[in-house]
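S.,

Sequence below, as promised.
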Amino acid sequence: MGAGIITMRKAHTTCQTMNLKYLDWVVHSASSTSRHVLTFEDAQHNIWLVTLDNGLYRAPIPANSTSVLDVGTGSGIWALDFANRHPNSHVLGIDLSPVKPNSAVPKNCTFRVHNAESQWDFGDLGPFDLIHSRMLVMGMRDWRSYFKKCYDHLQPGGWVEAHEVWFPSGSENPSTPADSPYLRWSRLVHEGLARGGIDGRAAEDFPKMLGELGFEDIVEDRTPWAVGPWPQDAKARKIGELEAANLYNGLEGMTVGVLTKNLGWAPEDVDEFVAEVKNDIYDVEKKYILNM
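The prediction came back faster than expected:
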């Protein structure tokens, strides 16, 4: 089972030829309830581990890959995991804010404060065998420029892997009302992002964009995540359970800024709406999904 994963390779040539956090008001949203005790990003990492069968990536990188970049590293959990699994590699994680890892940092992993949409200069740490990113959609404004920088900073034959979501979300039950709180929320987030200059559906255009930039072996895997424990399949059900808890925990962070700053909502109205959505996402009869 895959989910919103796209991998692509830079051609083998001799010439030097994909936060940024969610946004400041999303990262490190800790829950005070018993539903969820990890940071938002670390819980999300666990969902990706289930999705990827305990893997960290799909790209067929060589076992001896030595240089890896993690864009929008957040808490650094993916970079730390990769570095621990690949002790002969070096992993650089970049983000808008200083990284505060929840575990010891191995010698082969470093972090830098860097905006992925500014110019890239990582000195002798590049070029890279793999550039990894995930869930940047709520912060990335210019994907074409981002992927061009990825291409320019890859080793010949190197890989980029992006794990993304797009809005609005949906339902696998055709009888679910279009005005249900969760579906309405996803449309409002999409509208709010658009007013802020961010395309919530950008991932739909990745294959065409990447081909135009010169990438080869582009592979796209679209499989929605369930929201809530409604699927019959055990793996999909586990993902649904985890994603509902993660969304429950991070909903304020994903909503407040978009609705107040971009759509003009009053904070108290956002609070009331978020409470409705939190109750709604656990309605298993509605079979909600997150488009990946």
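The first strand starts at residue 5 and ends at 10.

Coffee later?
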